[in-house]
Amino acid sequence: MITIHLKYEIDPDRIEDFEEYGRRWVALVNRFGGTHHGYFLPSEGDSDIAYALFSFPGFAQYERYRADSATDPECQAAFELARRTGCIRRYERRFLRPLDQEGNSSSGGSARS
């Protein structure tokens, strides 16, 4: 499994637009075979930072989602919402892997601290 962690710098004056963007992507990721874990919006502290987490069974499925979403009309409409409103200033994407039940990394990689 691979989990994608997104950190967004958002326009706090456009939070409603970002919320709509997030609602759309939760449904879209799930439709494309992923599991969306939600969007996490500012509450206390920074007013312009939000997060999202979603997972796919593996990197190949994630890459398929990326390719398919590039031509999907609903995905393109969500991208256009963000472009038109300017609710997202920038974002960072990270790829994470979970620990399995025995405390080993699920990819079998070497241990590092």
From TrEMBL:
Residues 8-99 form the NIPSNAP domain. SUPFAM superfamilies: Dimeric alpha+beta barrel. InterPro entries: Dimeric_a/b-barrel, NIPSNAP. Signal peptide: none annotated. Pfam families: NIPSNAP. Coiled coil: none annotated. Gene3D superfamilies: 3.30.70.100. This is NIPSNAP family protein. It comes from Streptomyces jumonjinensis.
